[in-house]
Amino acid sequence: MLTPLDEHALLVFWTQLLVLVAAARAAGYGMRRVGLPSVIGHLAAGVVLGPSVFGQVWPSGFEWFLPHEEISSGALFAVSWLGVALLLVTAGFETDLALIRRLGRAAALVTGFSLVVPLAGGLVTGLLLPDGFVGGGADRTVFALFVAAALSVSALAVIARILSELGLMRRDFGQITVAAGMANDVVGWVMLAVFAGFASAGEVSVPGTLRTVLGLAAFLALAMTLGQRAVDASLRRIRRDGPNLRGALGIAVITMLLFGVVTQALGIEAVLGAFVAGVVLNRSRFQQHEVEHHIESLTNAFLAPVFFAMAGLRVDLSLLGEGEALAWAGAVMVVAIVAKFAGAFVGARMAGQSQRAAVALGAGLNARGALEIVIASVGLSLGVFSETAYTVIVIVPLVTSVFAAVSLRLAVRDWMGSPAERERLEREEALSRNLVVRSSRLLLPSRAEPASIAAAQLMHFAWPVQVPATVISVTADSGSGASYGSDGAAGVRWPDIDIIRSVLHGRDVDHRQVRVASGAGAVVASAIVAEARLGYGAICVGVAGRHEGQLYSPMVDELLLHSPLPVVIVRRAEGIETPLPGAFTRAIVPVTGTRSSRAAQEVAFGVSGQLGTEVVLTHVVQRQRPQLRMLPERLTRTKLATRVLGEDRSESARQVVDSLMESARSRGSEMGVDARALVPEGSSVASTLVAAAEEQEADLVVLGASLRNVDGRPFLGHTVETVLERCTANVAVVAMPRAVEA
To answer: Tens digit of pLDDT for each residue in 113-132?
Structure first.
């Protein structure tokens, strides 16, 4: 039966949580104020509240605060282990396996040497440490392996926080540091699982090792395949009606608990299952980014401080005064710092990194944190570590994290990296401020007809190749088998999208095939909108021409009316006989100062960045109409100053135009594009744009539009519709939903 806590035990439990959270949060805030990770403050708060300080200053109060009753301490430990499980879920969210593969040789060499050198140093240290550090009855070899594992790992969470606070996350060496930190975490958890199996068996056993390794390998294989599919299906289902944060959080918690149960049943710590759960959840394309934020907020605000403070509570610094414990503790610190620094430095230099980058890598990878504390906690619970050894191992993250933060700050002072790196960082910064051309997955409705091929081509050149895309083909189950691609034309079978994949070469592309009950445009558009709710950044759709009584076609019109995302409409140039338009050499982009105009500029600049397309930023200034001369002079100069050109145009109007063009050119410069400005005059904006495209021999016109609903019909504005109808060049329209445009 369940044994509840009595009233006194409950009072102690709530007091423990209150004091631990308040003290840890306050100390963490103090550490951040001086530029150090908050985890150092959390650990320090636990040390102060533990036997080292509180227990010495007020023994009776300490006994009341931390009684020896098993059920009372068990409740506190349960909360702390839940905290480390959620902390490892967030660490899994930050683990990008593709990043580790992409960084290749540099990441591999830095990771290998930063693990092997401190592992060897830790193994030798573990064999030399006095018997007072070894748990009663523990095998010396198993003890040495635990010491080696504790000294060889790095803390991804601490590394990421230090790099983020210093603004170094996107630097070249910062990416290698994160990749090596990820690999350190993965290898560290594997080592913990294997070494914990040794400890449970009481010795280093080859059969036991094989069982542990094979069990872990089977779990990882199933988690990354069947587990990934199950998580994807669950997240997709709860998101079918739009963002569902509550449902996504529920899936995340259930996945964490399920994976934890499996790993614990395999004789491996449940926190490894939580880490793998975070990796699987992060890999799902249907994941909502807010989930990580909410889990991280709860963990950092409450549960993680409890775990780290609990780790500090078990530190008894008085044990270091016994015999040569203090001297050996110093030796462990030196081995931990020097071996990790030397390994990372050698690996970086062998990978061709500069000496400055190698120093920064050695400094950054020295940060330890959650994983080392978990290793120490597991080692103590399994009887491998004595209280003295546990105290020394838990102090290592305190010292090394301070060393990492301070030395990294010194290593990168006044060092901005290579010119190529600076240019990349500037472009990434510009991309992060964009409205449409961002890093979210793209959606392309298509049945591989010429119109959607043109849309795929523009999309491929406008967005970075790292952005994934989904091609969706919708087919009706009706007797006619009608299906709709991007232009609403009828077909009879699933399209062969190989040509679309060829156009999107180098990009991660998947193909969604959706059947609907009817081939009506509204039904097909509804299926595309339902897919768009699953987490995309924009929809790119090709159009072949206008249908009678429609803006484009029944399907595209319905899509424009109901899409929650920006829609990029691409209409091929007239007279093209090949499937693909020619390479875009010159693009006309109207500049009006609206958000939709800015979005159109982003698309044009993206194309120019990849193809070298000349971008001509165009602002049409309308000539004063004759009837306006009859208006009072004051009204003409104030109300119409920004639209009227000629002898009545005011100086302020010219300044407005100059400011618009300069802002647009600056935005292009941030993306590495040197755009040209053109300010023609004309009585009609649309006619002037069409004429400018012909005079400039432009093969692409990119316009922005704010989507409006007029009597149940999408309306993009007279200028956009006229240009689409009369311009013979390729035309792309970035239609922003009203919620985005506002």
So the answer is: 999 999 999 999 999 999 98
- The answer to whether 179 touches 361, Cβ cutoff 8 Å, is no
Angle of CA points 258, 263, 264, to nearest 5°: 95
DSSP element (H, E) containing 27? helix 7-33
Long-range (24+ apart) CB contacts under 8 A made by 723-728 are: 723/686, 723/689, 723/690, 724/546, 724/571, 725/546, 726/686, 726/687, 726/690, 727/689, 727/690, 727/693, 727/701, 728/573, 728/574, 728/575, 728/694
* Tokens representing residue 373 in the block: 């504390």
Per-residue pLDDT, 343: 95
Provide the token pair at 458: 């523009």
Residues 288-317 as b or e (16 or more Cβ within 10 Å = b): beebbeebbeebbebbbbbbbbbbbbbbbb
State the pairing for strand pair 713-715/730-736.
unpaired
Query: In one letter, which amino acid is 481?
Result: G
User: In this structure, which amino acid lies at residue 80?
Assistant: S
φ/ψ (deg, to 5) at 621:
-105, 120
**Residue 242: its pLDDT value, please?**
73
Distances (CA, A) of 413 to 224, 337, 668: 41, 21, 30
Helices 97-128 & 325-350, crossing angle to 10 degrees?
A: 140
Q: Could you give the 3-state DSSP secondary structure of residue 539?
A: strand
Q: Please give the Cα distance from 399 to 407 (Å, whole number).
A: 12
Other CB atoms within 10 Å distance of the CB of residue 593: 15
The closest of 240, 289, 288 to 514, measured between CA atoms, is 240
The CB-based long-range contact list for 289-294 (8 Å cut-off, 24+ gap) reads 290/243, 290/245, 290/248, 291/245, 291/248, 291/249, 291/252, 292/90, 292/93, 294/245, 294/249
Residue 511's DSSP bridge partners are 471
Over 149-217, what HEC string results? HHHHCCCHHHHHHHHHHCCCCCCHHHHHHHHHHHHHHHHHHHHHHHHHHHHHHCCCCHHHHHHHHHHHH
Strands 713-715 and 621-622: unpaired
d(CA 742, CA 736): 9
Which H helix or E strand runs over 301? none
pLDDT in tens, 625-664: 544 443 344 333 334 344 444 444 457 777 888 889 999 9
Selected residue with higher pLDDT from 522 and 589: 589
Of 173, 201, 105, which Cα lies nearest the Cα of 418?
173
Q: Residue 402 and residue 622: Cα distance in Å, rounded?
A: 63
Residue 737 corresponds to which tokens in the numbers above? 């939903």
Over residues 211-264, the pLDDT tens digits come to 777 888 899 999 999 999 999 999 988 887 777 889 999 999 999 999 999 988
Q: Is the pLDDT of residue 12 over 70?
A: yes
CA distance 420 to 412: 17
